[in-house]
Amino acid sequence: MNLNPRVKEYSSQVEILYSTKGAIEKVGGITMDGTRFTVNTRVPAGTAVSIQANGLAKPWADADTGTPYLTNHDVVTADVTTSNVVVGAWAEALVVGSKLNGVTPAFKTAAGGRYRYY
User: Which phi and psi (to 5°) does residue 11 adopt?
Assistant: First the structure.
């Protein structure tokens, strides 16, 4: 029996939605490529990612040709880079542009009309 106290930090995530009207969640979420994200790091809600040819998500880069998504909740990456983490994603949504991470003009163009920015 382990009687040592455990300490866990909890944080509150930022609400990125302007409105829930018209919001469509990607069914099953997306799987983040563990080799593309820093180990033991919090990836905040509203982070721009793209789906690679292998079906895994990576942080958005302007040269990406994969399907762009926005994460819909905070997630902490795994202890090792060989572990992939599943996170929810918005397929379409009305979002607050100032609360997003990694969204560039190229992301907005690639996403087309799937996201509206307020």
Answer: -130, 160
State both tokens at 38: 């820093």
Q: What is the pLDDT of residues 5-28, one digit of tens each?
A: 877 666 667 889 999 888 999 988
DSSP assignment letter at 112: G
CA distance 75 to 83: 13
Residue 47 per-residue DSSP state: B
Instruction: Give dist(CA 71, CA 45) in Å, integer.
Output: 5
Give yes or no for a contact between 34 and 83, defined as CB atoms under 8 angstroms apart.
yes
What's the predicted TM-score (pTM) here? 0.84
Tell me 82's DSSP state: T
| HSE, side-chain direction, 13 A CA sphere, residue 45 | 15
